[in-house]
Amino acid sequence: MYEKMFVKISENHADLCICNYRYVDEDGNDFPINWKSPLKNECCTPTEAQRKLCEDGYWYYVTAVNKLYHNRLFKAHGFKDGILHEDEFIIHHIFYSCRKIVTISDELYNYVQRNNSITGNKENIHHLDGAYAMLDRYILFKRKYSELSCFPLRDAYYIEYNMLKKIRLHKWNAEYRKILSKVLLFLISEKDLRFVKLSMYCVIKF
Fold first, then answer.
1. CB-based burial of residue 86 (10 Å sphere; 0-12 exposed, 13-18 middle, 19+ buried)?
2. For residue 70, which of 15, 66, 76, 100 is within the disulfide window of CB 3.0 to 4.6 Å?
3. Alpha carbon of 90 to those of 21, 26, 101, 181: distances in Å?
4. pLDDT tens, 14-34?
């Protein structure tokens, strides 16, 4: 896996290589999915890679396990401790720091899906960390890729709303309202009113 990725990095003078992966269960059998990977054999500029974070199947570009990084990328960036979706927090900054990204369509990694994993527990309130990651992405996009800035906000609300539907537990309502209120105040401070109405609706309803 890494040898092939290293060759691609060297041949294309890239800073990052992303390979395709295969979803498997704990026995190594194919795990059923209803989507197709968007990864192709191609080179991307940082702007092109950021745009792929706004498209279907974007998580193939986010997941940490299918990448080979130039070590200079981690001199300025690192994974955050104590949160879920730490790869969501860092990937847009990694792309921004790259000169070139190369992707491989070959499935070089088996991505094991476990029901008892931390991310596999869909009722874990800390999945909302992903919404904060989207707000962090929004800040970068608004500054450097303004035409893409609405997409992280859309994804933040997708995470929050679907998270709430899955939890449906009264004990989380107070914490959820607290988090969503912070999001609302953030959007108001940014003078971005596109999602303020939806945010107010969720705070009041839940």
1. middle
2. 15
3. 20, 28, 15, 24
4. 999 999 999 898 888 888 888
Three state DSSP letters for 31-97:
CCCCCCCCCCCEEECHHHHHHHCCCCCCHHHHCHHHEEECCCHHHHCCCCCCCCCHHHHHHHHHHHH
pTM: 0.78
What pLDDT, in 10s, does the model give residues 31-58? 888 888 999 999 999 999 999 999 989 9
> Is residue 159 a contact partner of residue 134, using CB atoms and an 8 Å limit?
yes
* Burial degree of 32 (CB within 10 A; 0-12, 13-18, 19+): exposed
